[in-house]
Design brief:
alpha/beta; Aminopeptidase; two-stranded antiparallel ribbon
């Protein structure tokens, strides 16, 4: 095991030396996360572990601190029988940007994305550039922005593992929270946000879970000239915001369409990603989330 971890560390060290910088762009992050070296990032594999170490190294280089002693929340859970019933081991990666207000910093905004994908199937790597290297890149961009522009409430950056196996990482976090659940003000989840130019819209889900969301979406969409389409209040269980929604925590999900031609296929490649679109979505989201994170009063969960 020690040799395995050391080999992963050495591979990442070589990768970081190759960049020779600490300012990792959206494009660089998407290209590395969807590279053949990571073999599709299937949960519990070498590519999964490499991805975790990569995310930790980026956070360290940007001097974004772990929430506790280290960045990792390990978990081993059993999948539902309908998904094979296997035990899956992975880790959530958790970092924190402390809020600037002595009182409100005890409340948290969660910004998250899942980092895993489906790995290798029938001998072919499924790179997962859109699903979900794009979401991870958006969250990394946001983490950098909030580090430079702290808000009154604390920002929790979470990269969830094993989402493709049934939201295993996010369910585990909610069942074993590293902070009190009542201290979470809102959850902002980014999953497949790499096709804005191709699809022509940013899709949101969950704006009905807090009265403050919809007007802020309209305000900042107009400011950033983004076409944002809001969803009906249904089908909330498709990504890592769902376990928080079940606990009556306001959630907002960001997506640029399912891209069925490439979804869970070897053709989900970085060459097909709209990198500028991801950064535009991150800028829009930064303003929206900042408004929530700086509000004097805590937003409330709105029942259906």
């Amino acid at each position: 095991m020690k040799k395995f971890v050391l080999s992963l560390y050495l591979l990442l060290t070589i990768h970081f030396l190759g960049f020779g910088q600490t300012e990792f762009t959206v494009e660089q992050n998407v290209r590395y996360l969807s590279s053949s070296q990571l073999q599709g990032r299937n949960a519990g594999t070498r590519g999964d572990s490499l991805t975790q170490l990569y995310l930790i190294q980026v956070l360290k280089q940007w001097e974004i601190n772990p929430l506790s002693e280290d960045y990792m929340q390990p978990f081993t859970v059993k999948m539902k029988a309908s998904r094979g019933g296997d035990y899956i081991s992975s880790k959530n990666i958790v970092a924190c940007i402390e809020g600037s207000d002595s009182v409100l910093k005890k409340e948290y905004i969660i910004i998250c994305a899942h980092f895993d994908h489906v790995g290798v199937e029938k001998g072919r790597i499924h790179p997962g550039a859109n699903d979900n290297a794009s979401g991870v890149a958006a969250v990394l961009s946001l983490a950098n922005k909030f580090l430079r522009n702290p808000t009154k409430r604390s920002i929790l950056i979470i990269f969830f593992g094993a989402e493709e196996k049934g939201l295993l990482g996010s369910h585990y976090f909610v069942k074993n929270p590293l902070i009190p659940l009542h201290s979470i003000v809102g959850v902002f989840n980014f999953d497949m946000v790499g096709k804005y130019k191709q699809e022509g819209f940013l899709y949101t889900k969950g704006e009905q879970t807090a009265a403050a969301f919809s007007p802020l979406i309209d305000q900042y969409a107009a400011m950033h000239q983004l076409n944002v389409e809001k969803s009906p209040y249904r089908y909330m269980d498709g990504s890592d915001h769902y376990p928080f929604y079940k606990k009556k925590i306001p959630v907002l999900f960001f997506n640029t369409g399912m891209d069925w031609d490439n979804y869970h296929k070897p053709s989900d490649l970085p060459e097909k990603i709209d990198f500028e679109g991801i950064e535009s979505i991150a800028q829009f989201s930064f303003d929206l989330i900042s408004a929530i994170a700086n509000k004097p009063e805590k937003i409330k969960f709105k029942k259906k």
